[in-house]
Each structure stands twice: as structure tokens, then as C-alpha cells.
Records
---
Amino acid sequence: MLDLGQSPVRESRWPVNGFFSSLRRRGLCAAARPRAVRGDVGWIDIVERTQNVTRRTDVKPIGAALYLIPVRTRVPLKFGKEILHSVVCARACVRVRDHAGRTAVGWGETPLSAQWVWPSMLAESDRRAELQGFCQTLARAWADLAVSGHPVEIGHAFQYDVLPDLLMQANAERAAAAGAEVERMPWLAALVCCSAFDIALHDAYG
């Protein structure tokens, strides 16, 4: 059992300041941020100091798949100036393996509502296509993720260490393809795309 008597957990708080600072440096969120407490040791330091501790309940993602399912809404839904009549749902499948070699599969799903996660003057079809493409990028990233632990730890590591860079890369590639500055996919859109895989991870854990 891990002895937390001298653990930095007792010396720090959740690193909201550091997390949002990281996003702002990448241009993924505005300067405004929630009120946060300060601590000398951030959460990422805690993860690095305890990552050698192996628990028999730890799992590791070893595969991921994505299914894009078109859905017609029963009634129109209005988001700002836009009205939604149909949506594509991202259905994710994540396979995990524990230290005993046992495997399990979990499923997660979220609607890719461009009207909500990416309000813009851009055509809805263009935003929808970008969201679907980004979900495909996430499927490959989740399958290649070299992190083991509890789903909360794995999801935190992905959201903190992987997702911001993937979003920045996707926006840079769109700008390069257009040959000019383009409207960037927002952080909220990236989080919603990622949520399907995070749900699937927790479902596989059981």
C-alpha cells in the first residue's frame, strides 16, 4: 500500500493555475481562468513521483476504434443562431489490458454537435468534418497511449499531456492546407471529441 504520510499530495492542491497556463501558452483558451489555490508541487509532479507504484487494478489502453453514426433528431434543436436537425455521433471502443494479461472492451458515445462545441460563421458541414477528422486522430492516439493506471489517471494524462498538442497540430495543419490563417477548432470541441474515448475507457474498466 502506498504510504501517503510524506506524499506531496498533502503539500499541494489541484493545479488549475498550471493547467490553464499551459493551455494559454498553446493559444487554446482565453486569459480568464477560474479562481485557484497555489501550491509548490503540482499534480503532474505527484504523478511523476508515484508512477513507479504498480497496482493490480491498473489497466493500459491497447486499442481503440471509432464509429461515426448519423442520427436524425426527433425535433429541431436551436443553438444560438443555428438550428440542428441531424447530428453525427462518435461511438468509441477502447480495449484495455491489466497486469495479469486480461483484456476488456468498453464503449462510449457523444454527439458531435458543431453548433454547440464550435459556434462560428463557418459552414456547419466544414466544422462537422473537422470534428470527425479530429476524432479519428484521437482514436490513433488513444491506441498508442503508453500510460497505465486508473481510468481517471489515464484520462488526466491524456487531457494534460496529449490532447493540447493534438489540437494545436490539427489547427496548424488546417492553416497550412488553407495557406492562410484559419479559425481554430476550440478547446471545448477537442474535449467533447475526447469524451467518447474517456467514457469507453471507464466502461472497459468496469
Note: Residues 1-17, 28-52 have pLDDT under 50 and may be disordered.
---
Amino acid sequence: MAPKDNLRQPAPSKRKVSRQVSRHQVAPKPRDKQTQLVVGVIALMVVLAVAVMFWPRGLGEPTVAKVVTDQGEFTMHLYAERMPITVANFVKLAEEGFYDGLKFHRVEDWVVQGGDPSGDGTGGPGYTVQFESFRWLRHDRGAIGMARRSDDRNSAGSQFYIVKEAAPSLNSEYAIFGKVVEGMDVVDKLVKDDTIVSVTIVSKPQ
């Protein structure tokens, strides 16, 4: 068996080591700095492009509706630019007086629901509207959405709901088309079978 000492590599001389270190510490060439700068700029442009792609878009000028109930009144902003089919349907029904006199047939800790001429959650205007969604609309407190059957996204008609607390599990599953911007205290006071006295469209986008 060879002695252990014979397995060692000869140590480089101090002079040789010194030359090796000096070779590795040569300052980077100007061309290398320029390359790094170009790569950094390209990376920044990619990040900005992605941010613009996913940045929340504006909701546009809202349609304003006023709802009078047994407990008082509240004001809603409806997002016609982002949810055109849903808002157009709601405005049509409101201007025809469809909602006047109907009940809030469902009132729970987190939501109120109305707009059903049958008064039990099964009725509607006699037709349904196509489902639509906008990714930046969320079920935050005060959000207004269209009620529908759980097995058919395109089954909404006239029934709408207002969430009294955030319900993120419903995001993208139901058509949010507006928000209560004034009078949530009135919404909080609603009880089952309170009446929708009237729904008035106050203004529309020009």
C-alpha cells in the first residue's frame, strides 16, 4: 500500500498562487457591463408588460340607480361598460317598473336577495340572460350580482342579490354588475319580505 503522503498533491508555490489570484481579479470589460445593462432593461420591460396586462381596468362611468325600500333607500352604481348585457337587462326591468312592489324574499347574515315576482326564489321575467363576467369585479361588501340556478350560468333573469360581507368563493361564478355606494346601513336593516317600493334609474353614461 502506498504511503498516505504520496497521495497529496504538491502545494503550489506562493508566487504561483499569487499569479492565479491576480488573473481572476481582472476588472470586467466595458462590453460586459453593457451586456448586463441591456439584459436588465429587457427584464424590466417584460415585467412592465406583464403588469400592464393584468392591471385592473377602469369600470367606466356608472349607471346610477336608487332603490327605495321599507327600511329606507340606497344608491347603486351599475357597471354598464364592463357588464353591458346584465346592466341593460336590469335597467330595462327597472324602467318598466318590474321591481316595484316585489319582496326581498331571502335575507341572511351575509346576503339579501330580491326581484322575484313569485316571492320564493323560483320566478323571473319569463326569459334569461347570457352570463358575463369581469375579472376585477369581486364579491366585496356591497357588491350586487345576478342570482341564478346553481347548474346553469345562463339562467339569471331578474333576481339580484347584495352581499353584506365579502364572499370570495363566488367570484367569477356569478355576474357582479354593480355596487351599493350609499345606504349599506339600509341594506343591513332589511328583513325577509321587506318590499322594494321602487327602483329608479337616476342617470346613465353619456
Note: Residues 1-10, 16-22, 50-56 have pLDDT under 50 and may be disordered.
